[in-house]
Amino acid sequence: MDEPLSALDRLMREQMQLELIRLQRQVGITFILVTHDQEEALVMSDRIAVMFEGEIGQLADPETLYRRPATRRVAQFIGKMNFLPGEVTRGGAGVEIEIAGLGRATLDPDQAPAGAASGAVSVGIRPETLAILFEGETAPRREVQGIIDEVVYYGDMTYYDVRIDGFDRPLTVSMKNLIGRPVLDVGAVARLAWDERALVLLPD
């Protein structure tokens, strides 16, 4: 199937994604789907091959591809990701790293693909694994203060660009618009929660 849903509007495309999933299960044969829509690939696939210039950059199940991309290029292509510079200070069973703006963290070896366990690295973290803390909330793991630089409201979600000390670009944070949760303004001070388990190290 070569981009079979590309000409449909969003609602129809989402309905047809589910129809194709059900059809594939009923007939019990392999479907090969070609798409430039990363979200569609994640929704419809058991395995995904990300290709660049005719070469496979990574072949994995959707969750592994999203949570543990093997390279920065794959990470940039699949979904949104923040990248911060880091320096690995110790490898081994617990990878210690100094991260610009976030400080020191200790990661499991599976968070550091081959080639990213020493020296200068890029540290990737998805927007939805960061959280802005509101009044009365406490950080489950780590916390840093920042200033909101941009606000983009999507209805069910709000995307914030948050600037933190020690890093020259804002971090993108996605927050679900729950009942009682205000949408913050540009310039507001924000408490930003993060977790070492959400980080992935990629060769710089």
Overview of the structural elements:
- The chain is α+β, with helices and mostly antiparallel strands and 204 residues long.
- The protein has a domain at 127-194: OB fold (Dihydrolipoamide Acetyltransferase, E2P) (Beta Barrel), CATH 2.40.50.140.
- 18% of the residues lie in helices and 37% in strands.
- The protein is built from 4 helices and 12 strands.
- The strands form 3 sheets. The chain has a 5-stranded antiparallel beta sheet with strand order 5-4-3-6-12, with no helix packed on it. It has a 5-stranded antiparallel beta sheet with strand order 7-11-8-9-10, with no helix packed on it.
- A hairpin with a 2-residue loop joins strand 1 (48-52) and strand 2.
- The longest helix is centred in the first third of the chain and has 18 residues, at 10-27.
- The protein is globular.
Please name the CATH topology of the domain at 127-194. OB fold (Dihydrolipoamide Acetyltransferase, E2P)
Q: Helices and strands: which structural class?
A: alpha+beta
Sheet having the most strands:
5 strands, antiparallel
Gross geometry: globular
Strand order of the largest sheet: 5-4-3-6-12
The mean pLDDT is 91
- Count the E strands: 12
Taking all Cα atoms into account, the compactness measure Rg is 19 Å
Distance between the termini: 36 Å
If helices are DSSP runs of H or I spanning 4 or more residues, what is the number of helices?
4
CATH class descriptor of the domain at 127-194? Mainly Beta
What is the subunit arrangement here? single chain
CATH architectural name of the domain at 127-194: Beta Barrel
Residue share in helix: 10-25%
Elements, N to C (H/E): HHEEHHEEEEEEEEEE
Low-confidence stretches: none
